[in-house]
Amino acid sequence: MIAVNLAVFLAQIGKKVILIDANLPGAGLHSWFGLSWPEKTVTDILQRRLAGLDEALGPTGVNGLSLLAGAVDLRGGIGSSSADHEWLLQCIREVEADFVLIDLPPGLHPLTLDIFSQTDVSIAVTMATPDAVESTYRLFEATYLTKLLASPL
What is the rounded CA–CA span in Å between residue 74 and residue 24? Predict the structure, then answer.
C-alpha cells in the first residue's frame, strides 16, 4: 500500500511514474486500482516473452502512472534466475520515467536480493515487532553481502 500511495502522489505532482509489482508470490497491486487480472505481467518480462517494459505497462486510471502488474506465480518465482532479474533491471533502466517504484516480495527471495541490491535507492518498510526487525536486518545484511561479492576485489 505504501508503494501505491507514493506512486499516486508522485504522479499527482506531475511526475511520470511506473509502479512494478514484482511480488510474484503475492502480487496484487492491480487490485488497488480496481483492475482485473492483467494480461501482461512482470513474469512476461522475466521469461523474455516481451521485448521491453513498454509492452507490458498498463494504465491505472491515475494520470502519469503506469503499472507493470505481477502475476500470481504459485511457485513464487522459483523459475527465475539472476540472469532473468538482470534482464528485468535492464528493461527498467531503458524505460523513460521520472520514478520507477518496485514492490518486492518480503524476505530473502532471490528476486528481492538481486533487485534491492542494484537499485539507485532502496527503501525497506517494516513493523516494530522483533521478527520483522530481525527480517529487515537480515535483508540489509544479505544485500550488503550480495554487493560485496559482486564487487571486483
Answer: 8
